[in-house]
Design brief:
The complex is a heterodimer of chains A (142) and B (427). By secondary structure, chain A is mainly alpha-helical. Chain A has helices at residues 6-13, 17-25, 41-61, 69-89, 97-128. In chain B, helix 2 (38-73) runs parallel beside helix 14 (400-424) and helix 11 (329-345) runs antiparallel to helix 13. Classes of the chains: A mainly alpha (142), B mainly alpha (427). At the A-B interface, helix 2, helix 3, helix 4 and helix 5 of A face helix 2, helix 4, helix 9 and helix 14 of B.
Chain lengths: 142, 427
């Protein structure tokens, strides 16, 4: 089902004392979950390091004034961090692609929800902008 | 539980399991009977948790939608009010949560390899990350409540209902406390109970020192004279009775007092924030409280998810250690978590303002820390015992619960990754 590096294959062979004891005491305990992919520690730490760097960038960018770009940079960095967490920490990279599809669909529908709501807000903004002095308010507040 | 003597059925999967991959053994004891193979069971578990995580994303998506609408309609409110948040504390929280995600993923790996002691260590580290995160959160919240920047009516920016009483800001004796807490990490270790310190040490100079951390300074037209109430622009309209009058008098609360103190030290940040407030439209000035509402609901719900995650990981920890070796891990862990919850509840406003209340808060913080320390030692000893267990619960043949709880914890981290820049890092 998944490709394995020699390290990961060896990981299945060398299970540690507890597993060997388990096998000895419970012969019915076959490796019934199949050859599931085990994440190598290098990838875990590499992802962690990347996330740290991106967090530092996120905070550092706020010290520089880029005008309206600031929020977009922050959001893009957040999306990259989220992708790293999802792919490597949450194992989506080696998982059944359908699980990744579920995540993407959820985000897609949230995007629709927020996007169309903002469109609606833009449409009716003139109705509730602060009144000029002496004018009565019309429309309702959000 | 079926044995190898069960005759093969017509279903392929069932027959395959009993044909036993060449081993000729019966079921894996962890295989439930409504599944054909352990692989199917594992895949189903993963699918189920991902569907649940999708609902979590949608739930927080609703809150992000509310945030988007408020910020789109009142960008000045958010630009101004976010200065009340300490982005260094938020950054530390982000790093703590990412580190706990690392230890959780590492724990899943340890479970896959059957390394029980390593798994227990990783789970302990993840729970510790949760404690630290919620502790810093509690410090932030308590500080907000203490400065009357809480949720709803406990906020000096909240506009009273027509005919209602003024917000409680004016009656607070803690007004002389000054600005928000300093950004030094040393003082933010909530578990040490240092948060009790700010109360007695309120001096005017203190406010100037902490000014750089962010301040919701409200400008006062004249800091030493009483401010006239802002004229109601809606007075003549037919809807006047439905519209809240701005009965709140800006500049008379604790923020103005601290601003007066900070003025003497020519704090630039205060001027900038005050300018932002002055330049805001009158309507925006009345809507500043929406930022704090958004902040408390979003981070509060996220905090509840962190606590739930901690409880789930604690449950997995108990399973990993194994029932015969559990010893004092369960009762001590429950005590520790309960004490921590009690500590978090003590940040509620009525407790955060009296000297006795702060004393109870500090004591509870120490008690929680002590309980956690004892639990940590006991869990460590039990982990050593569990390593020798003949039948560890989690190993290559069954690690699903660790994996699924891990995914929940990662989603909690994911949501915070978006919350942090949107709430703390606005420009």
């Amino acid at each position: 089902m998944t490709l394995q590096t020699p390290d990961e294959h060896m990981a299945h062979v060398d299970q540690g004392q507890s597993f060997l004891q388990a096998k000895a005491h419970n012969p019915a305990n076959v490796h019934a979950q199949g050859h599931t992919h085990v994440v190598p520690p290098k990838i875990l730490f590499g992802t962690f390091a990347a996330l740290l760097v991106l967090t530092v960038i996120t905070v550092a960018v706020t010290l520089v004034d880029l005008g309206p770009l600031n929020i977009w940079v922050a959001l893009i960095v957040a999306v990259i961090k989220a992708a790293l967490v999802a792919l490597y920490f949450m194992h989506l990279r080696w998982d059944n692609p359908f699980n990744a599809m579920i995540l993407v669909c959820a985000l897609f529908f949230v995007a629709i929800m927020i996007g169309t709501t903002i469109l609606d807000s833009k449409e009716y903004k003139p109705n509730y902008d602060p009144p000029r002095s002496g004018q009565a308010m019309s429309g309702s507040q959000p | 539980m079926s044995t190898a003597a069960t005759p093969p059925t017509t279903e392929h999967g069932h027959a395959d399991a009993h044909a036993g991959n060449g081993h000729g053994h019966g079921h894996n004891p962890h295989l439930a009977h409504h599944f054909d193979t352990p692989e199917q069971q594992f895949a189903s578990g993963k699918l189920g948790i991902w569907l649940f995580l999708a609902t979590e994303i949608l739930m927080f998506g609703g809150l992000f939608c509310a945030y988007s609408v408020y910020r789109h309609n009142h960008p000045d409110v958010f630009s101004f009010a976010h200065h009340a948040l300490n982005k260094w504390l938020g950054g530390i929280n982000t790093i703590v949560l990412i580190a706990s995600s690392l230890t959780m993923a590492w724990g899943v790996r340890a479970a896959q390899l059957g390394k029980t002691k390593q798994l227990v260590w990783c789970l302990i580290a993840t729970i510790l990350g949760g404690y630290i995160f919620m502790g810093i959160k509690a410090v932030e919240y308590r500080d907000k409540w203490a400065h009357n920047l809480g949720a709803g009516r406990n906020n000096e920016f909240s506009v009273p209902i027509a005919g209602g009483a003024l917000p409680k800001a004016e009656t607070k004796a803690e007004g002389e406390k000054g600005g928000m807490m300093p950004a030094t990490p040393a003082s933010t270790d909530a578990k040490k109970g240092d948060h009790a310190a700010p109360a007695p040490s309120s001096v005017p100079g203190h406010s100037a020192k902490v000014e750089h951390a962010g301040h919701t300074a409200r400008p006062a037209a004249a800091t030493s004279q009483p401010i006239a109430a802002v004229a109601d622009p809606n007075a003549g309209s037919p809807d006047a009775s439905l519209i809240r009058p701005p009965a709140y008098v800006p500049g008379s609360g604790i923020v103005a007092k601290s601003r007066a103190a900070a003025d003497a030290h020519h704090e630039v940040h205060v001027d900038r924030a005050a300018d932002m407030y002055l330049k805001m439209g009158h309507l925006d000035q009345q809507r500043v409280y929406t930022f704090f509402q958004t902040y408390f609901v979003m981070t509060g719900l996220h905090g509840i998810h962190v606590l739930v995650g901690m409880a789930l990981i604690f449950w997995i920890l108990l399973r990993a250690v194994g029932r015969p070796h559990r010893g004092w891990v369960l009762p001590l862990g429950m005590l520790s978590l309960t004490a921590f919850l009690f500590y978090l509840l003590l940040i509620l406003p009525r407790n955060a303002h009296t000297t006795a209340g702060l004393g109870v808060l500090a004591t509870t913080g120490w008690v929680t820390l002590a309980l956690f320390g004892v639990w940590f030692v006991v869990a460590y000893m039990r982990a050593k015992a569990a390593r020798m267990a003949p039948q560890p619960e989690f190993g290559p043949e069954y690690f699903t619960p660790v994996d699924l709880v891990g995914l929940y914890w990662h989603i909690v981290d994911l949501i915070w990754i978006f919350l942090f820049p949107l709430l703390y890092l606005i420009h």
